């Protein structure tokens, strides 16, 4: 049964779009609709950075984006904010190592999807033990979107996890574009998560299609 669950989760992770209002050059609602039209497979609402929405404004945007994902059958994940995730009935949450512990979050969210950023085997083992559904691994390449990231690790850790037999679905993150996404899935990731590769694109739908093509090409390993 777990194998089937992993297969389904892995498929969801192929083109993992992360976005908040600060990342968008136009209305986030329009950006998300175009990204879905292009073929994203999962969406994470991440409202962080200078000028990020707070309070009621953050909640209202989350509700709008959640509604779009519900209507178009795209899993809706909230980054880091468990209360918000529960308030909008999100499909899941994603947490980093600096957030609440995996076991605490799992208890709060029940059987919703739980993604955890991991950077070494100790973190990976802990995440699995307490119910992570997938790993976020990175930064694979240099990124300017987050200023508090760990050191760039390329695909080394991805390779290590797969070589050691870890079956947990994995999404690579950090500096990924349509030009290098195939390298990430070739190394063992099930998909790639991106922000600016989509939000900064002139043609969002086409940018997503190119990402997906690269992701699938790397899977022909």
Give the key terms.
8-stranded parallel β-barrel; TIM Barrel; alpha/beta; globular; 221 residues
Summarize the biggest pleated sheet.
8 strands, parallel, barrel
Question: Helix/strand/pairing class, anyone?
Answer: alpha/beta
What is the number of E strands?
A: 8
Report the end-to-end length measured between terminal Cα atoms.
25 Å
Q: Could you characterize what this model shows?
A:
- Helix 2 runs parallel beside helix 3 (55-71) and helix 2 packs across helix 10 (204-218).
- It contains ten helices and eight strands.
- The protein has helices at residues 2-12, 28-38, 55-71, 82-87, 102-109, 121-129, 156-163, 181-186, 196-199, 204-218, and strands spanning 15-19, 42-45, 76-79, 92-95, 113-118, 134-137, 170-173, 191-194.
- It is globular and about 45 Å long.
- The longest helix is centred in the N-terminal third of the chain and has 17 residues, at 55-71.
- Strands 1-2-3-4-5-6-7-8 form an eight-stranded parallel β-barrel, surrounded by six helices.
- It is 43% helix and 16% strand.
- It has a single domain, classed as Aldolase class I (TIM Barrel, Alpha-Beta Barrel), CATH 3.20.20.
- With 221 residues, the chain is an alpha/beta fold.
């Amino acid at each position: 049964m777990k194998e089937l669950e992993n297969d389904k989760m892995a498929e969801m992770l192929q083109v993992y779009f992360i976005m908040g209002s600060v990342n968008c050059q136009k209305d986030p609602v329009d950006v998300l609709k175009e990204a879905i039209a292009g073929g994203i497979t999962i969406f994470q609402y991440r409202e962080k950075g200078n000028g990020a929405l707070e309070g009621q404004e953050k909640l209202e945007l989350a509700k709008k984006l959640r509604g779009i994902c519900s209507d178009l059958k795209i899993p809706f994940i909230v980054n880091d904010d468990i209360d918000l995730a529960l308030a909008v009935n999100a499909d899941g949450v994603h947490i980093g190592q600096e957030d609440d512990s995996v076991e605490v979050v799992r208890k709060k969210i029940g059987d919703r999807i739980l993604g955890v950023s991991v950077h070494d085997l100790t973190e990976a083992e802990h995440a699995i033990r307490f119910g992570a559904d997938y790993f976020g691994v990175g930064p694979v390449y240099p990124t300017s979107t987050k200023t508090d990231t760990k050191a760039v690790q390329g695909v080394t850790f991805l390779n290590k996890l797969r070589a050691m037999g870890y079956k947990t679905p994995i999404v690579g993150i950090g500096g990924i574009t349509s030009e290098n996404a195939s390298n990430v899935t070739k190394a063992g990731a099930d998909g790639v998560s991106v922000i600016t590769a989509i939000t900064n694109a002139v043609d969002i739908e086409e940018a997503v299609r190119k990402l997906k093509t690269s992701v699938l090409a790397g899977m022909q390993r």
